[in-house]
Design goal:
The chain is of the alpha+beta class. It has a domain at 17-54. It is built from two helices and two strands; from the N terminus they run βααβ. Strands 1-2 form a two-stranded parallel ribbon.
């Protein structure tokens, strides 16, 4: 059972944008794989991440 503390805001789930700016072709289903990795991480570690930019 979770304990809520006074003044703490509930975690707001936001969708992470993935921006592929690499000059080479990316693997098939790269977005699904990245989202799967992000789902594995605790919310505390991904809080504030709005986008992932893939570069060379």
């Amino acid at each position: 059972m979770a304990i809520e503390t006074a003044g703490q805001k509930a975690a707001k789930i936001t969708k992470v944008r993935i921006e592929p700016t690499a000059s080479f072709p990316l693997p098939k289903d790269y977005e699904a794989h990245i989202l799967k990795v992000l789902d594995f991480l605790p919310l505390e570690q991904t809080r504030g991440v709005e986008r992932i930019k893939l570069v060379d």
